[in-house]
C-alpha cells in the first residue's frame, strides 16, 4: 500500500461535503423548524434556497429535487454551512478546508443534537465528497487512464467517471481535465478530482446514531486512500508532502 502524506501543500481541497439522506416521521414542512430550533444559537439567520420557488408537490415527487436543501445556515464559528431539506442535511466546507479534525466534530455535534428529535427516522445514505483542484498538467501523470486505438487519451477536454465498490462503500470518481473554477474574478481551467464516497443503509434500518461516526470515519479514510492512489509519486512530489 502506498504511503499517504499527512499533509500536502498547497491543499488541493476546494470543497468538502458530508450529506445525510433520510426519511422522517415528521411532516415535511416541520423538519427545518425543529432542526433550526436545536441549532440556532450557533448559526446565523437562515437563508432560503432557490428550490423553494417551486411548488412542494414538484419538490417532493421529482427524484432530482427530493434530496435538495431548502434552507442554509452558516456557522458563527467556522467557515462551514449546513443545508437542510425535508429529507437531507448537508455539511459544506467551501474554500479553505478546515481539516477533518475540525469538520468531523462539527458534524457529530449537530447530528447528536438531533438524535431525540425524530428528524432522522430511517437513514438512507451517507455521502462523503471531496473536490480537489490540481494543475491541468497533472492529468498526464495520474494513475487512471483511458486508451483509444492503443493510445492514451490526453485530449484538452476529457472527463472520466467511474464507480468503484470498496468494502462497504461505493465511490463515485469524476476526473475532469477542463473544469472551470469560478471562485476567482478570472475563470480558471483546472484538473478536478471529485470523489464521492457513499454508504447506503439497508431499508428500514433505524440504527443511524449508533453507526454514523464509524461510517464517517471509515468513509473519510477510504476517500483519502483513493485520492492518493490516483496521484502518482511524481505528482505527490510536487505537492510538498509531509509524512
Layout of SSEs?
Layout: E1 13-23, H1 31-39, E2 47-48, H2 56-61, E3 71-74, E4 81-85, E5 88-94, H3 100-113, E6 122-134, E7 147-148, E8 151-152, E9 159-166, E10 169-181, E11 188-200, H4 212-230, H5 233-237
Antiparallel strand pairs: 1-5, 1-6, 2-3, 3-4, 4-5, 6-11, 7-8, 9-10, 10-11
Describe the overall structure.
There is one protein chain. With 243 residues, this protein is α+β, with helices and mostly antiparallel strands. It folds into 2 domains: 1-16 and 126-243, no CATH class; 25-119, no CATH class. Helix content is 22%, strand content 33%. It is built from 5 helices and 11 strands. It has helices spanning 31-39, 56-61, 100-113, 212-230, 233-237; strands at 13-23, 47-48, 71-74, 81-85, 88-94, 122-134, 147-148, 151-152, 159-166, 169-181, 188-200. The strands form 2 sheets. It has a 9-stranded antiparallel β-sheet with strand order 2-3-4-5-1-6-11-10-9, covered by helices on one side. Strands 7-8 form a two-stranded antiparallel sheet. A hairpin with a 2-residue loop joins strand 4 (81-85) and strand 5. The longest helix has 19 residues, at 212-230. The two termini are 15 Å apart. The mean pLDDT is 93.
Beta fraction = 25-35%
Low-confidence stretches: none
Task: Tell me the domain tally.
Answer: 2
Helix content: 10-25%
How many DSSP E strands? Answer: 11
Mass-distribution shape? globular
Query: Total helix count?
Result: 5
H/E element order: EHEHEEEHEEEEEEHH
Distance between the termini: 15 Å
Can you give keywords for this protein?
243 residues; globular; two-stranded antiparallel ribbon; 2 domains; 33% strand; single chain; nine-stranded antiparallel β-sheet; 5 helices; alpha+beta; 22% helix
